[in-house]
Predict the 3D structure of the following.
Amino acid sequence: MKRAASFELVLPERDSGLPAGRWLYEALRRKILDGGLRPGARLPATRDLARQYGLARGTIVNAFEQLKSEGYLEGSVGSGTHVNSILPDELLQIPGEDRQGSAAPGRPPHVSNYAKHLERFLNLEARPSRAFRPNLPALNLFPATLWTQVTARRLRRASTHLLLGCASMGYAPLREAVTAYLATSRGVKCAPEQVAILSGVQEAIDLVARLFVEPGDRVCIENPGYPGAAIALKSRGAKISAIRVDDEGMLTPPSSVRGARLVYLTPGHQFPLGVTMSLARRLQMLEWARMSGAMILEDDYDGEYRYHGRPVPSLQGLDRHGLVMYMGSFSKVLFPSLRLGYLVVPPHLVDHVSAILSVTSRHAPLLEQAVLCDFITEGHFGRHLRRMREVYAERLTTLLGCARERMAGLLEISGVEAGLQSAAWLHTGLNGESVAAAAAKRGVEVTPLSRYCHRPLEREGLQLGFAAIDSKEIRRGVRDLSITLESEHKSLLATTSVRS
């Protein structure tokens, strides 16, 4: 039988500004959890509480009903309201854990090898641009007001169809716009039905890995190369063969590499060295894939930005046997938070890709797809690209000129004039990691090329981003990097002198 409370219910003072109902709910819940109201205790009548605290009876009733719905109180007409004998918080408690959160030691959960190897990606948060952070466009020059206008116009005429969703391959008008754009600017040959709209190249790599790779299968990637590709492929249990890159791009896999299912490469602007794969090497790669039965995943991550002559046509445009899957991203061209990209799929694989998307991401956010489609078809995308090519070409020229003036003999920047960043080779003996650490103390961010390698390079180098920073910041970065290099070089000479 439930025991009636024999004391007046005393609650803490109400904080100013806190709504009365919220105060009463929290005060009663805390008193129950702290043991001030024991399981089975009967609460005063709502009229008595209303009179005691000067509240409307409806406020008391609403707080009681909320606590009843959450399992703290129980009661019915004629029997009063009582504290529940089994409280919801007790059901949620982990054995051995008190209410201060100190848990008794137990067996930790198993974490996959895939998760354990992701530590280097934990700090990919957005940060303000500075010299020489790579892989970023000039966000301050993006026409944000125009994008807002296009978005508002699209929202004003939003239909139930737009709110409902779309096919897993993406918004049909955007797929048509991407098809037309790729045909004219990148030499890609496809129909809109072959284009899948995704969140970006990382999702595309993961999807292709799901499509082709079984645990133990051989996959070829570039050395040095994009680490995100290796991580995604290893997550499927792939055995990685890192193939050397020379001045013509990735070498054709040697005869010792047998049974490869997939080759991932960046022929338009190799990441991170920046070289462009020659036509002869492209044809050799296609023939190798045809003879070996491997698929090629072509990542054209910033192929739009070539500052002399027309962009080099894609490897996919040379394919006659359905061996190449082509992908790109709008995040590098427009702004990173857009999270939209595309994957061009050979006709015989469209159904497979559509099926995978239908049970993974379902489809990319439809509103963003519709806005991007309008941005492209109204001509804003093309104008923005042309403007950015001019800006980035000017910034690259500034970087090259300042580097020749201040860092000659210490750092040699690659002559490849494309993309959002460039590779640079250090003076013999200088260590990329040491230089990067010392430069960071001066507010300069450079990435050692060794971080992209599966096997050591013959020469240490750095990756320098220039697109996201103006000429003033480039000059400041070169000045401070040159001071860093001179200091590291002197330390190297002093160490060499002591050893000799």
Notes: Residues 1-7, 94-103 have pLDDT under 50 and may be disordered. The CA atoms of residues 249 and 277 lie 4 Å apart.
